[in-house]
Here is the input.
Amino acid sequence: MSEYEQNIRESITLILGTKPGERQMLPDFGCRIHELMFTPNTTSTATLVAHHVQAALARWEPRIDVSKVDSWPDPGGTVRVAVHYTIRSTQQAQDVSVLLGS
Here is the structure.
């Protein structure tokens, strides 16, 4: 994996791991999925997770196009989110999995 690809992967992880309002100088930065951490794991919740992830990455990570978002519960009340995306400059498909709520 190139340094450029790793930088994008780290950016995605940072965006998804940040709650809006956490950064003083950029209060809108982050992803609203944290609002859903204690909601039942239903199809509706999975749809909302996908929507929030796609919206956040479209706004904050212009180097990629998100093709698919999957989410499922992990033990201990955490949620795993898999983001499938294409790097715009190289048209290379990638994916990253992020554990939230740990």
